[in-house]
Amino acid sequence: MISILQNNNQGTVLTSDDLIHPAGFKKLYIETYGCQMNVADTEIITGILTEKEYVLTKHAELADLILINTCSIRKNAEDKVFRRIQNLRKYKLVNKNLLIGVVGCMAEHSQSELMDTATVDIIAGPDNYIALPELIKVASNKVKAVSTELSTVETYDNIIPIHEENSISAFVPIMRGCNNFCSYCIVPYTRGRERSRDHNNIIEEVKNLTLKGFKEVTLIGQNVNSYNYSQSGNTYNFARLMENVAKINPALRIRFATSHPKDLSEDIVKVIADYKNVCKHIHLPFQSGSNRILDLMNRKYTREWYFDRINLIREMIPEVCISTDIIAGYSSETEEDHELTLDLMKTVRFDLAYMFFYSERKGTYAAKHYSDDISLAIKKRRLSEIIDLQNVHSLESNKNDINKTFEILIEGKAKKSAAQHKGRNSQNKMAVFPANENRIGEYINVRIIDCTSATLIGEIIN
User: Fold this and answer.
1) How far apart are CA 353 and CA 324, in angstroms?
2) How far apart (Å, rounded) are the C-alpha atoms in residues 231 and 253?
3) Which end of the chain is more exposed for a tag (fewer CB within 10 A), N or C?
4) What pLDDT, in 10s, does the model give residues 135-181?
5) In terms of DSSP bridges, do strands 26-32 and 65-70 run parallel, antiparallel, or are they unpaired?
6) Separation CA 408–CA 446 (nearest Å)
7) Closest by Cα among 107, 104, 98 to 66
8) Which residues, listed in sequence order, are joined to residue 234 by a DSSP beta bridge?
9) Concatenated DSSP letters of 411-422
10) What angle do CA 147, 149, 153 make, to 5 degrees?
11) pTM score, two decimals?
């Protein structure tokens, strides 16, 4: 079981699998916080440890080893993990041999604080998962085990990830690290420099996922557009990789995240347009509509370049859905800068957006050189205005889908009703519809009859 936590409410019903302890094996429990890359890293960690002496459990109270896979992108993400660590102390009172480890971005960014936390026995950065079996041995001798050295070559190409049971969708990392060094971002410091995975290994991984019955893969990386791998005299960029993945199985949906506007080429957009199984959704963060703020952020593009990319996308893929990321209240942001962000939103009219106010991160260029000089009240007010505008655009986008029919991949039961299923269309919009006899992992046609700003509501078309 890979536990992707939205909150700290844990189930307490024990299954027979949890009560059976295979001879010679210990129990591993993992909680995952953060982005898609963290989910993929948890699957890599699971692959490493279940090849050794561990089996997975759904229950922290039964574990011999608890790992928390962490995110450092915002301070509240780290605060949540520190609270969770304190909460886990109670299990050590019952099981004196229990080991607790913190892995991922916080192991790099907050190593000194974690070293001072008595509850934590193991600290391993994103490039050190191979060392986990050795770190566990060290920690078993009541010595804090730490490995956080960043690598310029580690891609975990030879590790078989273990995906969540009964999954139909899988994340496939195609690269690690980041070379962009946006001034607000901690990722290059916690995940290291950019390196691309072996092209053939990616292709083989996707082929194996298809054979195992997966219906959808998402190619992921901090900046997938800059994928670049040379092999046997051939050079593969992201467009060529994505095209080769799409050719593996026309019934396999292909998604990707995340794109950087400066690297979104016409070749990439053409592959999305040409292949039906490459989903018609592009996540293209713009962060600010002000060229002055974009320059301070070291984003390496202007609002004019961003508009050019949007026009290219919509010209080549008329049915596309475009989502984005937006930061409110960055260092020195004026009301004029904020209005330029709202203006860009009004011009593009995004289908979906992830919106945050600026949170200064220790160790970044911005934290060292810029003042976090926008008050929390102003940040929240500007963010509220951005959210309100985006809700209008999201509802407008979804209303435009009423009476349209989409092919939906059924993902599971809807949250609010067991009588309904949920699933996404090619544009990455979530739809709910009557469950009927359809099963998870099937494709069905759904006609949209209503919507909210977040969800399409449909009926099944036979």
Assistant:
1) 5
2) 26
3) C
4) 999 999 999 999 999 999 999 999 999 998 889 999 999 999 999 99
5) parallel
6) 7
7) 98
8) 231
9) EEE-SS-TTEEE
10) 125
11) 0.92
pLDDT tens-place string over residues 398-415: 999 999 999 999 999 999
Crossing angle of the two packed helices 335-348 and 376-399, in degrees rounded to 10: 10
Secondary structure (DSSP) of 367-413 = HHHS---S-HHHHHHHHHHHHHHHHHHHHHHHHTTTT-EEEEEEEEE
> Does residue 66 lie in a domain region?
yes
In this structure, the strands spanning 352-357 and 253-257 are unpaired
Residue of 84, 83, 118 lying closest to 3 (CA atoms): 84
What is the spatial distance between Cα 61 and Cα 12, in angstroms, rounded to a whole number?
A: 9
Which CATH number does the domain housing residue 418 bear? 2.40.50.140
Model confidence pLDDT, tens digit, residues 249-283: 999 999 999 999 999 999 999 999 999 999 999 99
> Which has the closest alpha carbon to 449: 410, 420, 412, 416?
420
How far separated are the first and last CA of the chain, in Å rounded? 35
Give residue 357's pLDDT.
97
- Cβ atoms of 255 and 219 within 8 Å: the answer is yes
Whether 227 contacts 244, CB under 8 Å: no
Residue 355 within any structural domain of the chain: no
Q: What is the pLDDT of residue 165?
A: 80
Number of domains the chain contains: 2
pLDDT digits (tens, 9 = 90+) for 192-249: 999 999 999 999 999 999 999 999 999 999 999 999 999 889 999 999 999 999 999 9
Which among 105, 133, 109 is positioned nearest to 41, based on CA atoms? 105
Q: Which residues pair with 99 in a beta bridge?
A: 65
pLDDT for residue 13 is more than 60: no
Look at residue 3 and tell me whether its pLDDT is greater than 80: no
CATH code for the domain in which residue 47 is found:
3.40.50.12160
CA atoms within 13 A on the CB side of 177: 17
**In-domain check, residue 173:** no
Which of residues 164 and 367 earns the better pLDDT score?
Answer: 367
Give the span between the Cα atoms of 155 and 104, in whole angstroms.
14
> Which residue, among 64, 29, 68, has the nearest Cα to 139 in the 3D structure?
64
DSSP 34: S
Structural domain includes residue 129:
yes
Domain boundary among 84, 114, 147: 147
> Which run of H or E residues covers position 306?
helix 303-316
- Domain span at residue 438 reads 405-461
Q: Are 344 and 286 in contact (CB under 8 A)?
A: yes
